[in-house]
UniProtKB/TrEMBL annotation:
The keyword Kinase applies. Phosphorylation of dTMP to form dTDP in both de novo and salvage pathways of dTTP synthesis. It catalyses: dTMP + ATP = dTDP + ADP. It comes from Fluviibacter phosphoraccumulans. Keywords: ATP-binding, Kinase, Nucleotide biosynthesis, Nucleotide-binding, Transferase. This is Thymidylate kinase. GO terms for cellular component: cytosol. It comes from the Bacteria. Its EC number is 2.7.4.9.
């Protein structure tokens, strides 16, 4: 996977209900108005095969290892047919989740060995990481109250609070490991304040 990366790769992460999806459309509009070509996509998903895998992943019971491998299978397809071509054309790619989610959910939440994650990440991404990751951070209690108010829950969203707590802690560990790339966005504040934090977190890339 030889990537000519002239665009920008932005990923958006957080526990379920952290509020990330609410801001992606706003960010797309902001970047478009600033003159950039923007591709918005998501994981698992973003391709016909990836969306089929998403339906399985969000609904069917499976072992934690199977879950991790399917996340990376969807990602391999996503990288080769959407993300890398868009970056090569100079677009800003905004992905609703990427491999930090696999670290948080499958390693942190499910307990899959970190070395298995690292092996798959090396194989599939060959060193490619986002230019910036916006990590929406909120307490599990707040996130769960938001979700229960708004939708029918999927297989991940139905997990108990201690699962979501482990996922949040794993995201924090990952952010501590990559402080330049991963920026925490406090999302338990009004929407306009969240958006102000997003612009600060992207300011060097936008300059
Ligand atoms: N800053 C905020 N203050 C109050 N409510 C918010 C805030 N951000 C998002 N919400 C509300 O929380 C709910 C969940 O938000 P959203 O769907 O964006 O979360 P999410 O992190 O994308 O969830 P998922 O990952 O499960 O898709 C929505 O009803 C949204 O309006
Ligand atoms: C990429 C990725 C995702 N997940 C989980 C996290 C969420 O619960 C769902 C996706 O739902 P969303 O509404 O789009 O946030 O999938 C995961 O466990 N591991 C991953 O790598």
């Amino acid at each position: 996977m030889a990537v000519v990366n002239t665009g920008r790769f932005i990923t958006v992460e957080g526990i379920d209900g952290a509020g990330k999806s609410s801001h992606i459309e706003w960010l797309r509009n902001y970047l478009t108005q600033a003159g950039h070509a923007v591709v918005v996509t998501r994981e698992p998903g973003g391709t016909p095969l990836g969306e089929s895998l998403r339906t399985l992943l969000l609904n069917e019971p499976m072992s934690p290892e199977t879950e991790m491998m399917l996340m990376f299978a969807a990602r391999a397809e996503h990288l080769s047919s959407v993300i890398c071509p868009a970056l090569a054309q100079g677009a800003w790619v905004i992905s609703d989740r990427f491999s930090d989610a696999t670290y948080a959910y499958q390693v942190g939440g499910r307990g899959v060995a970190e070395r298995k994650f690292a092996a798959l990440e090396d194989w599939v991404q060959e060193g490619l990481q986002p230019d910036r990751t916006l990590l929406f951070d909120v307490s599990v209690a707040t996130a769960q109250a938001r979700l229960h108010d708004t939708r029918i829950l999927d297989r991940f969203e139905r997990e108990a609070s201690d699962f979501h707590q482990r996922v949040r802690e794993a995201y924090h560990q990952r952010a501590a490991q990559y402080p330049e790339r991963i920026r925490l966005i406090a999302s338990d504040v009004p929407m306009d304040d969240v958006r102000a934090q997003i612009l600060v977190a992207l300011s060097d890339l936008l300059a």
